[in-house]
Amino acid sequence: MAFTLNNADGGIISLQNGYGDEAIWVGTIFEGQEVASITRAPEQVVDQSWERRKDREQEFAMTINILNPIWYNSLSDDQKTSIENWRQAWLDYPNDDNATEPERPVGIF
Are 17 and 2 a contacting pair, CB within 8 Å? Predict the structure, then answer.
């Protein structure tokens, strides 16, 4: 069964898969936030968007999240625009079932 870990505002902290007593998560700190509640995850989140979000997280961990400001400032305006468009495509990707996985801009990373 898939379930979401939610913060006090009802926002989703994370999606987890498991069986047993999911209530043990309530009151714990996960990814810097306290888990206030858990709910059963909608199936469509489990099927598509969750996996796409995980793919995006992994891609950003190897690229955008480790950008050096000095290196970034040395890029041309066209290269910066390519990075911005690629990043936005990744941000939109989990919510668009028809989208294909965005490809890294050639020769930048």
Answer: yes
pLDDT digits (tens, 9 = 90+) for 68-82: 999 999 999 999 999
- Which residue blocks in the chain are alpha helix, DSSP H? 43-44, 50-61, 69-73, 77-92
Alpha-carbon distance of 27 to 13, in angstroms, equals 13
C-beta of residue 109 within 8 angstroms of C-beta of residue 60: no
Place of tokens 């069986």: 19
Q: Which residue reads 């199936």 in tokens? A: 43
pTM over 0.85: no
At position 39, the amino acid (one-letter code) is: T
Q: Which residues pair with 5 in a beta bridge?
A: 14, 38
CA torsion, ordered 68, 57, 34, 42, to nearest 10 deg: 160
Structure tokens at 28: 């714990």
What one-character DSSP code corresponds to residue 20? S
Is the CB of residue 79 less than 8 Å from the CB of residue 105?
Answer: yes
